[in-house]
Amino acid sequence: MNEKLIVCHGLSKAYGHKAALSGVDLEVGQGRIVGLLGPNGSGKTTLIKLLCGLIQPTTGGLTIDGQAPGPETKAMVSYLPDRMYFANWMRAVDLFDLFRDFYQNFDYDKALAMCRSLGVEPKDKLKSMSKGTKEKVQLVLVMARKARLYLLDEPIAGVDPAARDFILHTILTNYNEDGTVLISTHLIADIEKVLDEVIFLKSGRIMLHSTVDDIRERQGKSVDALFREIFRTQPMEGGLY
Ligand SMILES: Nc1ncnc2c1ncn2[C@@H]1O[C@H](COP(=O)(O)OP(=O)(O)OP(=O)(O)O)[C@@H](O)[C@H]1O
Question: What is the ipTM of this complex?
């Protein structure tokens, strides 16, 4: 078992002539909860897809627990994509059956218990569920696996603010604590209290990788405040009209 769960070296990805990620060097340890933060188009989804092995680097490489992406790493990575990919006629329990067949590390009882505490009726069809409830089902599927690495691409974006804390708490008290969680999100203020570390991405490059404690102690501000300061966009001269 490698102490460094994720290692990226000179990782770059271009789509045609467009560089989405450039020369990313990164190490993330085990049992960490890491926020992957950056403005739209900064490369967050691209990095997550590379870690999943869904796309290939243009140059450079990465390993997960010492192994290049492949069947072994896919078995230890649990991935929440940024869009729903399940058929609407399915019920949550149908998805749990599917995941039990697909993944040895899927804990069916844990999935049902998480549904209960999140107020999701597992026998309801997805098409009868609200957007936020469908997101909860997706999260349950992903977090009920006993994975080494959880990659969450913009979870809980559709969940109302009052429910977000409860969901985060439910997830973090249920997941495999030795696992590392990488969360891409724009909801920094909601999530930063559960994060150990943050990575700021800008135009495909890492501009900051720090522990949250360091930001609070050394900079004397919240991650949300630091993010807004660094990525503040200037208003257009003369306004929009
Ligand atoms: N399939 C693709 N083909 C061409 N360009 C792409 C493709 N996917 C992403 N890009 C480009 O790569 C860059 C990084 O995109 P990416 O989706 O990784 O950003 P992101 O940080 O996840 O953005 P957001 O916060 O808006 O979800 C963007 O400029 C985007 O337009």
Answer: 0.97
